[in-house]
Amino acid sequence: MVAAVEERLAHFFVTRREYIAPLGPVVIDAARALENFVLRGGKRTRPAFAWTGWLGAGHSADDPEADAVLTACAALELVQAAALIHDDIIDSSRTRRGFPTVHVDYETRHRDGQWAGDSAHYGASIATLIGDLALAWADDMTRDAGLDPAALHRFGPVWAAMRTEVLGGQMLDIHGEAGGDESVEAALQINRFKTAAYTIERPLHLGAALADADPELIAAYREFGTDIGIAFQLRDDLLGVFGDPAVTGKPSGDDLREGKRTVLIAEALRRADLSDPPAAALIRSSLGTDVTPDEVTELRRILTDLGAVDAVEERIAGLTDQALAALDASTATADAKRQLRAMALAATARSY
Amino acid sequence: MVAAVEERLAHFFVTRREYIAPLGPVVIDAARALENFVLRGGKRTRPAFAWTGWLGAGHSADDPEADAVLTACAALELVQAAALIHDDIIDSSRTRRGFPTVHVDYETRHRDGQWAGDSAHYGASIATLIGDLALAWADDMTRDAGLDPAALHRFGPVWAAMRTEVLGGQMLDIHGEAGGDESVEAALQINRFKTAAYTIERPLHLGAALADADPELIAAYREFGTDIGIAFQLRDDLLGVFGDPAVTGKPSGDDLREGKRTVLIAEALRRADLSDPPAAALIRSSLGTDVTPDEVTELRRILTDLGAVDAVEERIAGLTDQALAALDASTATADAKRQLRAMALAATARSY
Fold this sequence. Notes:
Two copies of one chain form a homodimer.
Chain A: H1 2-20, H2 25-39, H3 45-56, H4 66-74, H5 76-90, E1 95-96, E2 99-100, H6 102-112, H7 119-143, H8 149-179, H9 184-210, H10 215-242, H11 245-248, H12 254-258, H13 263-275, H14 277-286, H15 293-305, H16 308-328, H17 334-348
Antiparallel strand pairs in A: 1-2
Helix pairs in contact in A: 1-2, 1-4, 2-7, 3-4, 3-9, 3-17, 5-7, 6-7, 8-9, 9-10, 9-13, 10-16, 13-14, 13-16, 16-17
């Protein structure tokens, strides 16, 4: 599946050559930067959920339309590329998956070339446009997938909802950080749209829409997807503080340094405000600063002692149970149920 | 036509409400900012060319598919909104059409609200996402326009080319400024993609594709559109230096202050390097600096004396003649020929 998705993406980039060749080397190079970014890796989570959603509605990889469906599913990786490239500018992230982020790559080219103007601004500008290109190309890829008109028509509104939700969720995230909303509810609302809908719920829904699944299966998929999506983000929040750098690919405690307003932090602050005001003050004054490894260790201890970690673990367990119950009660095929159960557990399992 | 386009856009924004309502007030507000930006004005040039291209292939506003075609044409304004919102971030522009640009609007909200973090970065971040939303919604609007599947299928590749070209053209522009390519050829290449293809050639092509026009008419439209598009940008370049602020809505000589690498400037530098090195040095040292009104007057005199203004005027006249000849020789309807001729002259006429 991963290989098939990557093969579709690689093929799509080949089809773009005729569009960009007349623009010359600067744009050919930018397209190559995007291609490298997209093909460099990632777990292809979104295409996998979409594809499994389609199969689970009673289809098979041998169906005549399977090829077009897989291509449309693969296009989710281009939306993801756009989201990540723009997110990295917004979050001022310097690396992703062990490579410089796109804006840092272009910033470096500018600096090395001793070009005119501000290197960082140049990097952000070109990366903004490369992200835009990814967003436009995601659409082009779905239009060119070879879906029959009825399938493309069913696909449209779900695709629209997904793109609006991920962009809106990202706005909520930025606004929440700026506005200092520390509530668990605000963090959950961001999770709901920025991650859950976009990563699992809508991909499954897209697969179901392509399959022309019945409304009951769509409802079950969406319930499963929302719950697992939120649980997945909660697991990611725990990994962002407690994860092993060798596993996460990010420096230890990186979320603390970034000052991310996660449910974990919101839960800890809520508890500390009631029971341990000095701990609350310490969390607030440390978040978003360049904390040392010793400070990370101390903050971990505080989050654990406050019971915030256990509370998040309980939430993950509860959401996972609820999601699996919705899946079990659905009309999805037995194969898809097995597959989705495994994907749900992999996305939410304790691994540190 | 303008009113009809705006009515379609206003209606489209109403259809987005169901998508954004669950996201809450922050996103509802961002969508309103986008709606205000889109409905605030502009000449609706791109929808007008697309619609006229469709009519010129032998269609009438009374045809049953006219409604869907007009909606698809109106969606060009959402691509344009995305391009302008991101351009304004990239160019650090503070105002557009007499209003604060979107990123400045959000920067001000952040500052007035005394929120956490850097106001300018917050403004750019939210505006990046609002631009992304416009780009995604442009696609949604074409998918929802009600085009029949065959028309939507013909529309796709032209729509893809147009979006890739405008983003690529913008990359060329940024890269050209940074790399200091001062050649007339480089400036023309940027014009070709950033303006000509995007503003006139591809909109006409889109209209022709929707009409299922014959290849000869498409070729004639594209030739006309490319030439008039480049001429339009050359006129805009002259206005950017010589235009009356009351007409252009921009401070006098604004392009000089921005340091824009236009054909006019490239032509002037080419001539000055051969005949008047001190003038070349003065242009190079003034461009992109905060020139005074007296310095603007002096630079205007130099550009004129070098013959660069006349050279650009000649280029405009030549391109316009060539474009009108292609139009006259085409199979477009007599009405469309009249209309396109008037639009071409309005876009390129000397008006200062």
